[in-house]
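Board notes, transcribed. Complex of a protein with zinc ion.
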Amino acid sequence: MQVPVHLSDHYYEPGRSFCGLYIVSKIELPDFSPTAELIKIFNRRGILLLNITSHQKDYVTHDFVIADLTGKEAQKEEILGEIRRIFGQRLVSIECIDTGVPGFIYNVKGFPLIFNFSENYSPVAALSVHTWKTLFQGLIKRFGAGGMTLLWFMGNDAGEGKGLDLVKLKGALSNVERMKIAFARLQSFGWGIFELVECDDKENRIVIRVRDNFEEMAAKEIKGYQNSFLRGFLVGLISILFNSPCRGIETKCVNKGDPYCEFVIRLSHIKGSGCRSP
Ligand SMILES: [Zn+2]
């Protein structure tokens, strides 16, 4: 079973009293974990937290919690008092969040959005699948099949860039392991669920299966659309990892009724015979 990962939670319900608290405090393990204490404080009052996010650095925790205090507004001051009392000297600061819009709450300090790879933080700028859809539609409307070529090149450049990152990873990793790390990253970025089905570089054949891929989700209503961006990306990634030009075709596609999209990438070990086109 797949479990959704939340980017950020926003709540808007006119008439409700949402409470957003931002608490900075020191961790003292094993005796005191700020996040666990916060959950206990709300649990004891029978208040379910709508959201809790935690960021830790140098033994300081930044917790942000959202609770629905509709009908329990009077408890807010009590909760603040309880946190101050229980946290004591370990409390660095506590703040109530006001978004300026009644009934609306989100983590106002939540920025930047980061992808954490062993404490290397990459900022991420996310687009909803719906926004991707409008981008794809616009490209196809203006440039027709040329729009898909454009997407292929964009994907290809991005895939090559990702390949160069992976080549720099320390340790003795095989190409299969590097690809697995790349696919894990793409899954975390919301691009889909990737599976390396076959990797036979002697036969020059690499088969990748993708379920729930974002490009297909975004483009399913665009007639005749093919996974150009993703195909370009996989070709770019694999050409860098295997240090060989390659070509990719999509052999199965959810748009054609298959249960997943499947890409076959073929390496060309003959130098100079490579391609950099869709
Ligand atoms: Zn497809």
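Residues 216, 227, 250, 253-255, 261 surround zinc ion (CB under 6 Å). The domain at 11-111 is CATH 3.30.70.260 (Alpha-Beta Plaits).
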